[in-house]
Amino acid sequence: MDLFWRQGYAGTTPQELASELGIGKGSLYNTFESKHALFMRALERYSETRLEFLSDMFASPGPVRPRLKEAMAVLAGVGEHRRGCVMVNAAAELGTADDEVNRIADHLFTQIEGVFRQAIAKGQQAGEFSVDQAAETTASELLAAVVGLSVLVKAGGTPERFRAVIDGIVDGL
Predict the structure, then answer these.
(1) By C-alpha distance, which of 6, 3, 9, 7 is closest to 105?
(2) In which domain, by residue range, is 104 found?
(3) CATH code of the domain covering residue 124
(4) How far apart are CA 113 and CA 149, in angstroms?
(5) pLDDT digits over 65-103, tens only?
(6) 122: which residues sit within 8 A by CB, 6+ positions away?
(7) Distance CA 15, CA 25 (A)
């Protein structure tokens, strides 16, 4: 997953994958069938880790606002690296040509939006956020912001700049 994240699908060779995994090239194909099949498994695993992170993030009681800010920062890769989000990268690189990438990306994005919707509704009930806008609409806007921030992170800029953007977005709720 990390190698695809760093180099993209097209920029990663089967030999590099075999070396990264510590196996021979023949074993790569015997185990995973193809580079594409391994990439799909990497995207599925990435989705699982992101959804586990979000589930853990919002499982505990307490204010939603700081957790929502942190979730957005982590999902966009703010301060961690300049690689953005592997799923955003995959959708941008292959989405128009690969329905399987689209399916996995759409599933993850839909799940993230659902977590955001629940968090916003919880924050609205607790009086943290305005009830002027439906939680569904706000969740869609936050997802779009995370996707956009992921691209901006990949392009460069400072973590402080991106955290200020996230602060402005969430504080405006």
Answers:
(1) 9
(2) 2-171
(3) 1.10.357.10
(4) 15
(5) 999 999 999 999 998 677 888 899 899 999 888 999 999
(6) 58, 64
(7) 6
- Nearest alpha carbon to residue 12 among 28, 48, 72, 110: 28
Residue pair 152/162 in contact by the 8 Å Cβ criterion: yes
Predicted structure pTM score? 0.90
The token duo for 39 is 């990439």
For residues 152 and 166, give the distance between their C-alpha atoms in angstroms, rounded to a whole number: 13
Q: How many helices (H) and strands (E) does the chain have?
A: 9, 0
Q: Is 64:135 a contact under the CB 8 Å cutoff?
A: no
Q: What does the DSSP assignment read for 38-75?
A: HHHHHHHHHHHHHHHHHHHHHHS-S-SHHHHHHHHHHH
Looking at the 3D structure of the chain, how many domains does it have? 1
